[in-house]
Write a structure and sequence with these properties.
The complex is a heterodimer of chains A (488) and B (332). With 488 residues, chain A is mainly α. Chain A contains 21 helices and no strands. Chain B is globular and about 75 Å long. Chain B has a domain of 220 residues: Rossmann fold (3-Layer(aba) Sandwich), CATH 3.40.50. Chain B is an alpha/beta fold and 332 residues long. Classes of the chains: A mainly alpha (488), B alpha/beta (332).
Chain lengths: 488, 332
């Protein structure tokens, strides 16, 4: 069930309506049943993964609680089960094909064609809910939270419908206690939830889905479209992926707020970052970045190790993050590993040059505090990230290389190429929407827009809401079904 | 709490008023720019009774391109309205016809038949989910009622009805300021260069499965017979016709001869004339794509085949035979 569908609207109205009408002791049942219904809406079979992740994780934690001696064994078992499932469904087929190609290239004839075709379908959301289950296992092991005796709470935590498909990757220690709290209806929180849903839908349906065809058209034929189109598509993709992902997360967080739950913030105006560490550390996909930090980077030693080991830890985290992203909506490819490694390289450069920039800042404090310097840093960081998105979006490494070559070769003639390019109405609308987005994000960076609206006149608030709602209705891309009349 | 719900009610109320305003604006744009939408044509036509209504999927659509319909009316001296729509099977065609008959009268119906419409819900019940069918359809309570009825009787998605009465896809139409055009009409003058790969793609598109699901076929055959009976009760003559397609395309149609036999059987039983013009006037220069007649092909087909059929069957059959008249010797 998609967030931007009539079915979800009806489903949400039903769930929220019943939620506040039934006694609190039955709410877990509504949330659990609703979450499984939501998950199984298109296909029921993958729910087996959801259920087994829940039960196995619960049993492993129960085992940890019961047996001090075997705590580590149960932890490893739980993690292996979750990561094993992820590997089998997401990476096994791709890995076998790559090994087959490798053996074929070194002389083992027939290796590539001999690879068995595995008909294993990746269950939607597995990357997210397995990571959520791992936070529960590890946090109990580390003593950050006590084992939850009630399977129902664990089941709701892992399957909670607003976040099951695409996060945020909520921590068990912050979410499960909320399930036990008495949550009366709060008009302010309810309104905040609706605001977030509205803004999330606007980003997804009006901006992201409108940019998608322009990006797909260029990246589907990178060698043939004009270089201006490739360049535009690359910039557009940066906003498409941001609006798509953050829009979805906003809807998830807003939906949770309607029922009184607070999920963690997942995106914080990432393209206003002044450095790539800031981008990854506190602005982009925060729940995943902190997951990797807390459950991989820090256990590996983080930065409190020798310098070579620190660099290794950084690269390992980003490479694995790249692999984690592989297959999420786009075909599985080595480009994700390159994307991850490239961002790892950015972290290396930041660490390596960190002391230099600090010294420079201390030497020229006025420059460091100036608006121009701030803007320069933001623009540079943005372009470093956009460059890495080329690998994320391209269909292959060859395509990514083609994109980069074509853009670089056209830089000298860019003004004249842009002058001659036949921009369409769609382009102008897209530029306008991106400009509006950037403007609102800059406003939000100075002071929260919701806060501004909350204290401002009701008229301004309502005009803003109506603008978003009618923007959605009039220019939103709702993926309405159309008949594909095959033309020749 | 009460004040919160009051504010929500006020917000929703104002929102509905604004929505109504936007809806009216969209409806105005429909009347300004809709030209080819069949429901628009039906609602705005001033002709009370038509001699011929043409139904079908995309094959009879060229009969309505450019000035073809006017030429056909001129040739035959009859009033003709073409209600064919690409991809429309029996269920959507009947829907369009029913709506038409609530606004106008028809003496005769010509149904240009294709076999693929009997093999899948994609051309029938699911076809209604194409927003473009109703995006430029004027708001009409009759049409709304019919859609609601079809949701219950024919199992079409209820969202189609909701979308129509809410006008959502009308308001959301990206091409709201552009006139309706039929993209194929731009190719009407061309001669197609046939390519085997495209031919096979076309066949695969129309017939995704080579095997016929007998249950599905029977389901749509029953719908077809119901349509025949419906027209009979209204006293409307029905002719079934298969328009020309290239011979090599005809040969690629799966189990077409079996289909023809079954349809002929039903039509003979029901006393419905059937004209199979699949392989007449079908040389390759008569087509603008894999299987649709171009201007030259249509005019040729009109003059030599369609006109005689329409004229012959347009004359209402006398209920009492006229008295035998022996002509004078010089007029025999």
């Amino acid at each position: 069930m998609l967030f931007n569908s009539l079915s979800f609207l009806i489903f949400l109205g039903f769930i929220v309506g019943i939620y506040y009408s039934i006694p609190r002791r039955f709410r877990w049942l509504l949330l659990l049943a609703g979450s499984y219904y939501f998950y199984m809406f298109r296909e029921a079979k993958p729910a087996i993964w959801l259920a087994s992740t829940t039960v196995i994780s619960y049993l492993c934690v129960w085992g940890m609680a019961k047996s001090e001696l075997r705590r580590k064994s149960f932890l490893i078992l739980g993690i292996l089960f979750n990561l094993g499932g992820l590997f089998i469904t997401k990476y096994l087929s791709f890995s076998l094909i790559q090994f087959g190609n490798l053996f074929e290239s070194i002389g083992w004839a027939g290796a590539a064609s001999g690879v068995p075709h595995l008909d294993i379908k990746y269950p939607a959301g597995l990357s997210f809910f397995t990571f959520a289950a791992i936070t529960y296992l590890v946090d109990v092991y580390r003593g950050r939270m006590s084992a939850e005796k009630d399977l129902r709470q664990v089941a709701v935590y892992i399957s909670f419908f607003p976040k099951v498909f695409a996060g945020p990757i909520e921590r068990a220690r912050t979410f499960i206690p909320q399930l036990k709290n008495r949550i009366p209806f709060d008009p302010d929180r309810f309104t905040a939830g609706l605001q977030l849903i509205l803004w999330g839908l606007f980003k997804k349906v009006v901006i992201a889905d409108r940019l998608a065809p322009l990006v797909n058209s260029a990246y589907g034929r990178v060698a043939y479209v004009p270089p201006v189109e490739v360049l535009l598509a690359t910039y557009f993709f940066a906003f498409q992926i941001y609006c798509d992902f953050s829009g979805y997360t906003d809807i998830a967080i807003g939906t949770s707020k309607l029922m009184g739950f607070d999920l963690m913030e997942n995106f914080r105006r990432p393209y206003l970052s002044k450095s790539t560490p800031e981008f990854w550390g506190s602005r982009w996909h925060i729940s995943l970045a902190t997951w990797f930090r807390d459950y991989l980077y820090i256990p590996m030693g983080g930065s409190r190790v020798s310098s070579p080991r620190h660099y290794f830890n950084l690269m390992m985290v980003f490479a694995l993050s790249g692999l984690w992203h592989a297959g999420l909506g786009l075909a599985m490819s080595w480009t994700f590993l390159i994307w991850g490694a490239l961002n790892g390289l950015y972290q290396w450069v930041s660490v390596f040059t960190g002391k230099f920039w600090k010294m420079l800042g201390a030497r020229f404090p006025k420059v460091e505090r100036s608006a121009i310097w701030h803007v320069l840093r933001v623009v540079l960081t943005f372009h470093l990230i956009v460059f890495s998105w080329v690998f994320f979006r391209a269909n292959s490494i060859a395509d990514a290389w083609t994109v980069i070559q074509r853009i670089v070769k056209s830089l000298g003639n860019l003004p004249s190429l842009i002058g001659k390019y036949p921009f369409s109405t769609e382009h102008y609308i897209s530029f306008a929407l991106i400009a509006i987005l950037i403007f609102l994000e800059i406003l939000d960076e100075r002071k929260s827009i919701w806060e501004r609206l909350r204290v401002g006149p009701r008229l301004v608030r309502w005009v803003y809401y109506y603008a978003l709602i009618f923007g959605l209705i009039i220019i939103g891309d709702w993926q309405l079904a159309t008949f594909i009349y095959m033309q020749f | 709490m009460k004040s919160f719900f009051k504010r929500i009610a006020l917000f929703v109320g104002i929102g509905l008023i604004l929505y109504a305003g936007v809806y009216c604006a969209s409806e105005t744009l429909v009347y300004r720019y809709a030209k080819t939408n069949r429901f628009y044509q039906i609602k705005t036509s001033r002709v009370e009774t038509y001699d011929w209504v043409i139904l079908g999927a995309s094959h009879p659509m060229p009969f309505d391109y450019q000035d073809m319909n006017a030429r056909l009316e001129e040739m035959t001296g009859l009033t003709v309205i073409n209600l064919a729509t690409p991809g429309n099977g029996i269920v959507p065609n009947r829907f369009v016809l029913q709506y038409f008959l609530q606004k106008h009268n028809a003496r005769n119906v010509l149904y240009c038949l294709d076999s693929f419409i009997f093999y899948s819900r994609a051309w029938n019940e699911n076809r209604f989910q194409d927003v473009k069918l109703f995006q430029r359809a004027p708001l009409d309570s009759t049409l709304a009622k019919d859609l609601l009825g079809y949701s219950f009787q024919e199992g079409i998605a209820y969202t189609v009805f909701l979308d129509y009465i809410s006008g959502f896809s009308k308001i959301n139409n990206r091409d709201r300021f552009k006139p309706d055009i039929r993209e194929d009409e731009a190719k009407f003058e061309r001669n197609y260069r046939f390519l085997k790969s495209r031919d096979m793609e076309r066949i695969k598109y129309l017939y995704p499965s080579e095997k016929v699901d007998e249950q599905v076929f029977q389901h749509f055959l029953t719908k077809f017979v119901d349509l025949i009976d419906f027209l009979k009760t209204r006293g409307i003559n029905l002719i079934i016709l298969k328009p020309p397609i290239p011979s090599h395309i005809y040969e690629m149609l799966p189990q077409e001869s079996v289909f023809d036999e079954r349809i002929k059987g039903v039509l003979t039983e029901k006393g419905v004339p059937f004209y199979d013009f699949s392989l007449v006037a079908n040389s390759r220069e008569n087509f603008y794509d894999t299987d649709h007649l171009n201007r030259k092909g249509v005019l040729n087909f009109f003059s030599n085949y369609l006109k005689p059929v329409l004229v012959k069957h347009a004359a209402p059959a006398p209920s009492i035979p006229p008295p035998a008249v022996i002509p004078p010797k010089d007029q025999a």
